[in-house]
Batch of 2 targets.
Target 1
Amino acid sequence: MDTVVIVAASLVNTLTPGEDGGHPYPPLDEDRLPAAATAALRAGRPDTRDLSLLEARELHRFAMAFRAVFAAVALSDVDTAARQVNELLAATGAHPWLDRHDGEPWHLHFHGAQDSLATGWAAGCATGLAVVLGSDLHGRIGVCTAPRCDRVYVDTSRNGTRRFCSTACQNRVKAAAFRARRATVG
């Protein structure tokens, strides 16, 4: 499950505009969208084939919906996050399905064999988010708390205290706090 939730975060961080580490993260133009969507999926499955523009557009639409889930959880609004995930589960037709392909043993998917690549990934991501929200793990996903950053994260640490999308944002916040303390002492 953690792989599909990490892919959901990767899709949000790669395909949705906002701010990243104190810098604007503009919307991707259509020339860059397929490569960006492919890279986001490769966070979970490195051998993912290159995506078409149509597939990338579909994943972009799902990434915007995933962002709403992460944002609602960050605001402690699990009810809204759960409603959004239920809508995603319905839209993707997510359902458990045992599959065996590419020389792998039988394993669980959450989409049909005939679903598009984008719908299949979105169904898996929505199911992973549903598992997180339907357990005591919903505090393990969120939006970076660093100023001027709205990238999302999945906390896979042992102690579950992650609040930043990256070490760079964490260091940026700690350095600013250190400078502020030094300014009041001096």
Note: The radius of gyration is 18 Å.
Target 2
Amino acid sequence: MEINVSQLLKEPIGSSRKNKIDETIDIADDKHDSAVSGEISLLRTQRGILVRAGLHTELEFTCSRCLSAFRYPLDISFEEEYIQTIDVNSGLPLETSGEPGSFTIDEHHIIDLREAVRQYALLLIPMKPLCREGCAGLCPECGRNLNRGPCGCPVRTVDPRWSKLMNLR
């Protein structure tokens, strides 16, 4: 996900390019690379390059209720400005604003999108991923996955101390 923008940096402000992305990167630090595809547009700004991305990927998770593995689709879209650090014509370092967390164009005029894609994907991942909305989970007695059908465990009776609460339904 590295893009050489040296030619775009030589063009006037407002110049643009579009690129297709179809690569694999490690998003969730789980040693599994995820295929990321989509389109990005690059726009020359006064300070560098504005990147607008519309990407798609799928990550593999474990369901929080039934512990089954499943694929979770993510549509990642972001807009970030990559700040120029080296003048493309003279090769001299440029004064940067030193904004914390800003993305920069490296000394070879390369934009690396991996970190931005990773950060925006992590923001989209649910805290408790579910394989589907109505996941039934596991039986607390035998551990059977209740999505595959009922288990043979006897129905639990309600503790008599809580029986009055059952009338509130």
Note: The chain has a mean pLDDT of 88.
